[in-house]
């Protein structure tokens, strides 16, 4: 089968087109083989192309280190696909060959559907699994989405509105129209003045989703309602970087110390501080599909590329991401944090094959 792979970590030149990669084989009874019709790129794929998260992924790939001489290359990048099931493992009962997974919203094309899983499940993880909000308790709550014009942000805005929340979206002026179309109640242009001061004049919030990080974390928690269960959730964490830099054991220890100290510090001030990550979940994807089919959530795609144009898609995404990050940087020190949170921002880029 044709595939775009990398044989080492690096910049765009490491991408290689392979015409005759072996078809994937089912190794465990709970696996399926999917014929991919479309895939999407997210900013995390840029980071992973350069080796971000390699330690954790290699541990997951071979937790017992049974294949000491085997490495991850050639490695196929990408997190999101939409396609059709070709083959099922023996214990798979939910899917059958011919099904469009997972299950694809009936109203969407494969290209549109491929843009949803990673950003949708990341936003769902932050708002529902970590933040504790759902359709029953979200009505009337005040939500603030920092970095609302990215893939996770656009989904989070729509999810909050679908669940009846009042949503304030922070983005640049060129995305304000999109935010209104997605249902945001208030749209704040972070370049029209001091963002902290603009937000301080608004009523306090019940929940904040931070896709930006950096200096934002220093003041954003002051915008929460104290001693009410209000929660700040950030997607900008050092978890995988700590593991890449320090190794699995020391990296996890350092991460635990960091999140523990921050949680305790803010708990004493009457607010909850949390980290969130992408969490794979079939049942959550099914709920997302229901929201899409009911018209409450729509995919947001920046551009569509053919399969032969994958390197162009990476370059376009790289440009968008660094441009957004540069616009958000307020000092040279902020520029140093780009490598930390590049994976949380940017638009959706879809490739079709």
From TrEMBL:
GO terms for cellular component: mitochondrion. Signal peptide: none annotated. Residues 10-315 form the Enoyl reductase (ER) domain. It is found in: Mitochondrion. The keyword Transferase does not apply. InterPro entries: ADH-like_N, ER, GroES-like_sf, NAD(P)-bd_dom_sf, Quin_OxRdtase/zeta-crystal_CS, RTN4IP1, YIM1/Zinc_Alcohol_DH_Fams. It comes from the Eukaryota. Pfam families: ADH_N, ADH_zinc_N_2. One of its GO terms (molecular function) is zinc ion binding. Keywords: Acetylation, Mitochondrion, Oxidoreductase, Transit peptide. Belongs to the zinc-containing alcohol dehydrogenase family. Quinone oxidoreductase subfamily. This is Reticulon 4 interacting protein 1. It comes from Dromaius novaehollandiae. The gene is RTN4IP1.
């Amino acid at each position: 089968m044709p595939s775009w792979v990398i044989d080492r970590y690096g910049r765009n030149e490491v991408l290689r087109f392979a015409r005759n990669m072996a078809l994937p084989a089912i190794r465990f009874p709970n696996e399926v083989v999917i014929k991919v019709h479309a895939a999407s790129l997210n900013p995390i794929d840029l980071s992973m192309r350069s080796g971000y998260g390699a330690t954790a992924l290699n541990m997951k790939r071979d937790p017992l280190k049974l294949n000491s001489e085997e490495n991850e290359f050639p490695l196929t990048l990408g997190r999101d696909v939409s396609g059709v099931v070709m083959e099922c493992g023996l214990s798979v009962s939910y899917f059958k060959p011919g099904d469009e997974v997972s299950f694809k919203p009936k109203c969407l094309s494969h290209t549109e559907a491929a843009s949803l899983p990673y950003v949708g499940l990341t936003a769902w993880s932050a708002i529902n699994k970590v933040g504790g909000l759902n359709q029953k308790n979200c009505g009337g709550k005040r939500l603030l989405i920092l970095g609302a014009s990215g893939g996770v942000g656009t989904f989070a805005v729509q999810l909050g509105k679908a669940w009846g929340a009042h949503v304030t979206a922070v983005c640049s002026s060129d995305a304000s129209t999109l935010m209104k179309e997605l249902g945001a109640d208030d749209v704040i242009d972070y370049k029209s003045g001091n963002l902290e001061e603009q937000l301080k004049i608004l009523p306090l919030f019940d929940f904040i989703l931070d896709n930006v990080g950096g200096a934002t974390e220093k003041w954003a928690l002051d915008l929460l309602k104290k001693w009410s269960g209000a929660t700040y959730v950030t997607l900008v964490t050092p978890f995988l970087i700590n593991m890449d830099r320090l190794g699995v054991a020391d990296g996890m220890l350092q991460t635990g110390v960091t999140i523990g100290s921050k949680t305790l510090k803010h708990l004493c001030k009457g607010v909850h501080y949390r980290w969130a990550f992408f969490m794979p979940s079939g049942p959550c994807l099914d709920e997302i599909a229901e929201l899409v089919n009911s018209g409450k959530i729509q995919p947001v795609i920046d551009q569509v590329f053919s399969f032969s144009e994958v390197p162009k898609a990476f370059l376009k995404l790289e440009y968008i991401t660094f441009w957004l990050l540069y616009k958000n940087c307020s000092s040279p020190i902020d520029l140093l944090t780009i490598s930390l949170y590049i994976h949380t921002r940017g638009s959706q880029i879809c490739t079709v094959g």
